[in-house]
Amino acid sequence: MTQEELLEHVSGRIAERPAMPKEICIVDTLPLTPMGKIFKPAIRWEQTQHVLLETLAPITENGLAVSVDVCENRRYGMSARISLAISDSDRTDKAAIEREVCKLAGQFNVKFESEWV
What we know:
Helix content is 32%, strand content 22%. It is α+β, with helices and mostly antiparallel strands and 117 residues long. The protein folds into 2 domains: 1-29, no CATH class; 31-116, Alpha-Beta Plaits (2-Layer Sandwich), CATH 3.30.70.
């Protein structure tokens, strides 16, 4: 089955609109604990990384490279490290880019920090 077929299949079976999935991701394997149970935090981290990269995509149009690493944070549950790299750093307004990253990533309830690499 494709993602579209799965979405169509569940659309007639889920009565509550908020419960309807916005997207279905088909994966080869699921992360497991040593006991063989599904490790749900890793799924949340992967999805958070996906959403942050998608949200930050507009700032990559001018040669800016963005990578996101999401991991466990004992205080906040999870946190994200957003790494920024640009080839021509002399002509780049890094402060403006950092403000844009804060604006875009700040709309989510995830503790994050950005760094230049």
